[in-house]
Amino acid sequence: MSPKPHLASPNGGLPSSVLWAQLMLKDRLRPGDTVIDATMGNGHDTLFLTQCVSPGGHVFAFDVQAAALVETRKRVPAEMTTLIHSGHETMRAHVPAELHGKISAIMFNLGYLPGTDKSLITRTETTMIAVREALELLKPGGLLTIAVYPGHEGGAEEGRSIAEWAVTLDSRRFEVQHLRPINRAAAPPELWVVWKRG
């Protein structure tokens, strides 16, 4: 039996939306970079980002649920992370002004916090504020990744709003890609990636 490919999903198939995001970010992030995890959750993406920017980098991570901060703090190095108990739509207010326009990457993993109340989800209104602010916080050459889950309540609306917003972005300033499975019956997770031109 041949070994599973390094870039495979758990079932041996193509990468998931989150894995695609990680692959792109890992390729571009460097030690010393400053990045944002806009949806902290249980801290898996926050930890991934600390590994990408170590040594010398820093991760700002946001979540509205106190449980997310507790779980994330167990996983990530305190000296490399600032965990913020607030929604991602407040990024601009919480990230120091001297870092605005200097963030190397911002990662969104929308939906709900696994293992908790599934009615507590990211909301279209606040997500759209956050992604617009994210583009202003990114440095030239920076990446914005947005994993969207159309299959859960509210996720389809969130996905439609992101799609409508993405097509309006000025192609002279941004390049946008949309990755999604196309032959699955359910509504599988999707990934949007925005590159801020250098």
What does this structure look like?
This protein is of the alpha/beta class. It is built from six helices and seven strands. It has helices at 17-28, 44-53, 66-75, 91-94, 124-137, 155-166, and strands spanning 34-37, 58-63, 81-85, 103-109, 138-148, 174-179, 190-196. The chain has a seven-stranded mixed beta sheet, with helices on both faces. Helix 5 (124-137) packs parallel to helix 6. The longest helix is centred in the middle third of the chain and has 14 residues, at 124-137. The radius of gyration is 16 Å and the shape is globular. The model has no long low-confidence stretch (mean pLDDT 90).
Provide tags for this entry:
single chain; 198 residues; alpha/beta; seven-stranded mixed beta sheet; 6 helices
Share in β-strands:
15-25%
The geometry reads as globular
Output the helix-strand order.
Answer: HEHEHEHEHEHEE
The termini sit apart by: 45 Å
Overall pLDDT: 90
Q: What's the gyration radius in Å?
A: 16 Å
Number of helices: 6
Helix-strand makeup class: alpha/beta
Short structural description:
The protein has 198 residues and is an alpha/beta fold. The protein has helices at 17-28, 44-53, 66-75, 91-94, 124-137, 155-166, and strands spanning 34-37, 58-63, 81-85, 103-109, 138-148, 174-179, 190-196.
Draw up the topology in text:
Elements: H1 17-28, E1 34-37, H2 44-53, E2 58-63, H3 66-75, E3 81-85, H4 91-94, E4 103-109, H5 124-137, E5 138-148, H6 155-166, E6 174-179, E7 190-196
